[in-house]
């Protein structure tokens, strides 16, 4: 089967040839905070939104206009934590900050197609939980034939896990974490001492100095290029230059993680990726004030050891009631219901969570968690033109994505979705021609 990512690339190229401006006209603009504009207009120039308003809003004469009468216009959702497109989610070695997901992302993965079908415009690809320290992550657009073209932010974050990886217990997990940073410190000190001696030799200085003082003075001379390649990323992380996505499956892991990050003075650079049982540490997470990404499994089940009675807790409701912003991620990925971000948000509303809180969990709060809250998460002037044109309400199970724009360029159109047609007919279709979509026009 020829994947429809080829279609996405063709459409992107076609629209690019028509001009740098785009507009979406006639639909109902819906933002996560509940604000609505009927018969609205969104104007995108140079990839960014330059106007959001009613039918009177001026449209540039060179704009490609996407008619959206009867449709809902909604910001592209943000998948803030995922391993989609990676051939292997985790490395075999427990401490691997020297690896990079750049080397493992498959641009033609069908999972990126599913992102577009699910109104997702931004994807943070990061290694999985079965690690001590994972490699560098990357924020990408879910469309394109080359990782470099897809990239929004390279070398973005590191995954750390407080919860034991396979074959470890909590004691060995924390020992490995502490050892990694201790080994880093030892390496930097040895480099600092060497750099001091090199500078002293250049100046032909004969004065003897204690090793401790040599290290202290040499620290100011150390650059990242002086370090062994396997330590460079962790050094940047230790200085707070790289965000840490910290996996804590259970409440005790959350408590240990917070204290350890405080020791390292890295709590302010951390995002917590938690399991269902971590809801018991909601007050600690609230005090920490850091973003929280919930498990795709939204219900925690626990059996009473005496009676065997099973208690179920809808985890997002606990966070919502405590006033802790949270981010949703799908449970799995693909055509299954809970493999869609909108479905997870809809479940939250069904369980009594305010609609705006649920919608922000897949848009604005998700964008905030990956450091892009000022450019993604809502339809507002100055933000990127990642826009979904939907057939109906974003939380309605019958709604589908009619078109998806990435930075103002059409990346997906349901009418030309080859994979859907192939699934419905059972036959492979010939590659689509690179023509502009019928649903757009010049103003």
Rough outline:
globular
Largest sheet: 9 strands, mixed
Determine the strand fraction and express it as a percent band: 15-25%
Based on helices, strands and strand pairing, what is the structural class? alpha/beta
Number of helices: 13
Tell me the Rg in angstroms: 24 Å
Report mean pLDDT, rounded to a whole number: 90
How far apart the termini lie comes to 37 Å
Low-confidence stretches: 1-19, 433-438
Helix content class? 25-40%
Number of strands: 20
Description:
This protein is of the alpha/beta class. Helix content is 30%, strand content 23%. The chain is built from 13 helices and 20 strands. It has helices at 5-18, 110-117, 147-150, 170-202, 211-218, 229-238, 251-263, 282-288, 315-321, 341-350, 355-360, 364-369, 418-425; strands spanning 21-30, 36-45, 48-53, 64-67, 72-75, 77-82, 120-125, 133-136, 138-140, 151-153, 158-161, 244-248, 270-274, 292-293, 299-303, 310-314, 387-390, 401-406, 409-413, 440-442. Strands 1, 2, 3, 4, 5, 17, 18, 19 and 20 form a nine-stranded mixed sheet that branches. A five-stranded mixed sheet has the order 8-11-12-13-14, covered by helices on one side. Helix 8 (282-288) links the parallel strand 13 and strand 14 (292-293). The longest helix has 33 residues, at 170-202. Mean pLDDT is 90; it is low at 1-19 and 433-438.
